Amino acid sequence: MRILVIGASRGIGLETVRHALQHGHHVRAFARSAEQIGIEDDKLEKINGDACNAADVAAALKGVDAVIVTLGLPKTMQGLGRTTLFSDATRVLLPAMAAAGVKRLLAVTGFGAGDSKARMSTVEKIPFKALLGRAYADKDVQEDLIRESDLDWTIARPGILMNRPASHSYEVLVEPDTWRNGLISRGDVAHFLVHAAQEGTYVGKAPVLIR
């Protein structure tokens, strides 16, 4: 496959680039600082761009089979104020994918976004709202936009992210009554995203991912 990874320069995005390349896919790594990605591979194309710029996104979509969105806020920006990054980028991406004829979309939000918030305990909700509430309010909007599209979408909701090696052994909780918080490595989230893209699984689903 030819996979476009939006938000590819760090975190889950960078791990997704690595994992996709390991599985033989062609990867277009899209980020503001894509040229700084420290991976060299004949199947890797690095494209500098702004996920909220329609021209940049349209150019990046040419010839791809699937899009994986792994946008995140720098830690220095978390909890400091309202953000619209996730919804703004999604409003740019969805019509651009339709125009390019690209149907497969996988997007990372997190446990606590959308209807998974109802599965959080009271103890979890207090620090969550203080630290991540503003970002997740926009991820709620992002999820609604994706759900309302006619794309073949999957929304991945990882639990608490860890910088541990990928175990390739984790839980994919699809049914709402099974959703709960837990730890998961960024590498395991990347593993899920790449395999769901290449196998066409979890279309129209928003599973919670935990170890």
From TrEMBL:
GO terms assigned for molecular function: biliverdin reductase [NAD(P)H] activity; riboflavin reductase (NADPH) activity
Boundaries of every NAD(P)-binding domain copy: 7-198
Species, as recorded: Rhodovulum euryhalinum
Cited Gene3D superfamilies: NAD(P)-binding Rossmann-like Domain (3.40.50.720)
Domain of life: Bacteria
InterPro entries assigned to the protein according to its UniProt record, in alphabetical order: NAD(P)-bd_dom, NAD(P)-bd_dom_sf, Polyketide_Oxido-like
Name listed for the protein in its UniProt record: Putative NADH-flavin reductase
UniProt xrefs under SUPFAM superfamilies: NAD(P)-binding Rossmann-fold domains (SSF51735)
